[in-house]
Amino acid sequence: MKTTELESYLAERRQLVQEALARNLPPPDTYPPVVHQAMHYSLFAGGKRLRPILVLAAGEAVGSQPEPLLPAACAVEFIHTYSLIHDDLPAMDNDDYRRGRPTCHKVYGEAIALLAGDALLTLAFEVLSRIPATIPPERILRATRELAASAGSQGLIGGQVVDMEAEGQPVTLEKVNYIHNHKTGSLIRACLRLGGILGGAGEEQLALLTRYGEALGLAFQITDDILDITGDFSQTGKQGGVDAARGKATYPACLGVEASRQKAGELCAEAGALARALGPAAEPLELLAGFVLRRQG
Amino acid sequence: MKTTELESYLAERRQLVQEALARNLPPPDTYPPVVHQAMHYSLFAGGKRLRPILVLAAGEAVGSQPEPLLPAACAVEFIHTYSLIHDDLPAMDNDDYRRGRPTCHKVYGEAIALLAGDALLTLAFEVLSRIPATIPPERILRATRELAASAGSQGLIGGQVVDMEAEGQPVTLEKVNYIHNHKTGSLIRACLRLGGILGGAGEEQLALLTRYGEALGLAFQITDDILDITGDFSQTGKQGGVDAARGKATYPACLGVEASRQKAGELCAEAGALARALGPAAEPLELLAGFVLRRQG
């Protein structure tokens, strides 16, 4: 598989994910329509679908077909989207733009944005519990447990709490690592583990997928920090320099841009090596590590 | 079983629930502590634990022991508590008091209250997926699906959306019924169904439990509406007359207090009859219907 083949792999998987998301989200005219419209607005806002594709790629790396993994892929994207909606609220980061469009609460108001986020989080677990009968129910319960833990108060939410508390405080690498490994890393790690668990991975394969997810997740967030400084609005869809203006705990604030780039490069190399250890079916995961390193938005 | 026996049944079950809630919630010093403290603050705020007790009573009505149902009982109380925290936020009802104490965001700030609610919702599904192996996993997945649907955009959240939209609008009985049957009724109905499903109810028993839950849920919300007008702060812990001041869609606003009382009485009588049809093990459910009708807070 070459880089051009990765592009077509990503395009095909993204298409599967888009269709599954549309199938699993109630139509926008479902009563009461305003909250369903807000859910659609934020879910179909041009996201890259990195997380659901990681679920599929992890399952495929251990021999599964992508289709039975689609409910889990949708669940992680619902959770990712809910976390963005709540994170953008005035009580949190108070962001007006996301992916180049007004944020959910700018369009639908704070109350509906709050409830649309709640509804997406809830829907994630409804959809996960509807996984086809070809997958043993014990595996689905294990995946549910792991997804909930990764999104909870000692995972994604814990990362958001520490991120907010750290604003304007002196930045330490220890704190930045905690924030990144929880706020972003926890759900990305869960994507790899969910794909593995549902795809029938052995414990050794699952350990490789887990370490891959940890390396890729941290690399992804470091490149995000760097793009906030060096990125172009037309590609990132976000106003630049926001992190620095807010005194956010970031890698460049801690180590500078160059050392941050180097760290991201090392992590992606590590992820690539872990993917190679998983064998030929993990080739998309290997190439995805390079893709994350080169990303512009 | 007499009314005094109901009191001791409720006290014993409440004790089981309290212990299970404390076991299933991370301790308040768990990192990051502020969000765990906020979760504890709202969860241990003197709630009656009606919903978790309904889960246990429904399971017991179909022959289950209460203990295996405790994770599900905790899950519904986590969801109920999250919904109160979010409902009290300034962007929603903007309430300063709940059960006689300052609301979560008055103590911990809006951002932490928002995240504590998110964390309780997430924890509900984590705990539900940890149900003991004595219950078949297919039943747990069915319970997960039903709980998520009852709490989602076409259940509890849908009710909150329509409730907000209805504020200050002309009140119709149709709209009040939609709000009550979704905002409150949906989760109460789910309590009965979860207890039944996990407890091994047959479809006929499950249908009786479902209708009981629907009748009791609506009766509960009507008595809540009435207490907002006639209740005593020392017993309700809430400021009275708030619904009317806000132009909330309520039963008394629609039918007056007396006709609302009569409706609640009819619903509780119906619930009692449904419980009797379930047989002697459903006696606590039968007496609970009378308990809801007489409640003062």
UniProtKB/TrEMBL annotation, chains A, B:
Its cofactor is Mg(2+). CDD domains: Trans_IPPS_HT. One of its GO terms (molecular function) is (2E,6E)-farnesyl diphosphate synthase activity. Signal peptide: none annotated. Keywords: Isoprene biosynthesis, Magnesium, Metal-binding, Transferase. GO terms for cellular component: cytoplasm. It is an enzyme of class 2 (transferase). Its EC number is 2.5.1.10. It catalyses: isopentenyl diphosphate + (2E)-geranyl diphosphate = (2E,6E)-farnesyl diphosphate + diphosphate. One of its GO terms (biological process) is terpenoid biosynthetic process. The keyword Transit peptide does not apply. Coiled coil: none annotated. Belongs to the FPP/GGPP synthase family. This is Farnesyl diphosphate synthase.
